[in-house]
User: What shape does this take?
Amino acid sequence: MSKSIFYHAGCPVCVSAEQDIINLIGQDNVEVVHFGEDRNRISEAENAGVKSVPALVTPSGNVLHINFGASMEDVKG
Assistant: This one.
């Protein structure tokens, strides 16, 4: 993986965190995945270790859970 992936569900906490992440690391360094727009990527996030959103998966595979918007069970709901 060459860039970070930011997973979120579209809630206000997630949208705010998305803007902060983009401002911190740059648009070109992060892929944003909104589960409301791309539900097919939920299993990908879970396989990467995402337990709640918003979350950032770094290029080295570390998962950074940012604040707490929703559990993955809520997202799948």
Notes: Helices lie at 12-25, 42-48, 72-76. The longest helix spans residues 12-25. Residues 9 and 38 are 10 Å apart (CA to CA).
